[in-house]
Amino acid sequence: YLFNIYRLNMSVNVPVLGASFQLARTDVPTQTPWKAPIMWEGMFDGTLYDKAHLEANSSVALTVFAIGRYLEAYLKSFIISAEKHFMIGIPVTYYIFTDIPEDIPDFVLGPERTMKVLYVPRHARWQDISMMRMKTLSKIIDLEISYTYPYIFCLDVDSIFENRFGTEALGESVAVLHSHYYTVKQDEFTYDRNPKSKAYMKTGDYYYHAALFGGTWQNVKVLVDFCYNGIMEDKKNNVEALWHDESHLNKYYWLHKPTKLLSPEYCWDVISFINRTEIKVARMTWAKKRYDVLRA
Ligand code: 2GW
Ligand code: MN
Prior knowledge:
Mean pLDDT: 92
Bound molecules: 5-phenyl-uridine-5'-alpha-d-galactosyl-diphosphate, manganese (II) ion
CATH superfamily: Spore Coat Polysaccharide Biosynthesis Protein SpsA, Chain A
Distance between the termini: 48 Å
Strand content: 15-25%
């Protein structure tokens, strides 16, 4: 309890600068029913966000897990591309969780950018590798991030930054629209439909992708604890949600509306889709499944 008083509690008060630009897009919804912006290319001036966040002393922790073969398969391209495109202009610290810290290569990082490598044991089931990230994230927020970084973003490592992924993405509670589901009707969303699971949902707002979520550390802490508690409750009851942590994440955002949505530009499946006219820029994309490395 004593330590709480030292935690970062800056009021992150950067307005929605995109508002006056929303008329620039009429082909896509740019606002949720609860008035959160949905960030699409053409809606905002990135330099205004950069200026505001520089003045607000914003900084961000970017967490990523590289367990087993995923380290060799994806980490290098993830970090090298993040150095070119992720939150350039404000301080960034990478938190890399791995079971083989000795295999992390050397990276040359830009100014005000650092890296922390932390050991985590490897779970036997891949579903647990994915789900147990929630517990690790909760711990690292408690132990470190809450003292230093107002913002945290949590990403899948099989991702590649290709264009600006900047300070316009920062917000209190940030979710990304899944690139396979932003065009389909609600009844096609792959929510968990088993009433025995804590992730069970009848209805929702959108289908969000667990490959990317973020916000202030306070909000992300509530999110990861919610998901972890749901996952553990399910284990007790011998059930597992359809899409694992992603099902619990969707339940969380249904109950606690995100304050900002990122368009699928921010986590785009370039492999499945070509020529979607509303996608003006792919900011981060899904990496190809590296079966050469993963199945070697
Ligand atoms: C995952 C699946 C099967 C075999 C291995 C792994 C695995 C994942 C691994 O061996 N090592 C590892 O570090 N991971 C981490 O978990 C890594 O950061 C990876 O990006 C993340 C999620 O696994 P991934 O990317 O293979 O799963 P996707 O792309 O199908 O993920 C979606 O669904 C997942 C739940 O099934 C998660 O919610 C994920 O966030 C979603 O993007
Ligand atoms: Mn992935």
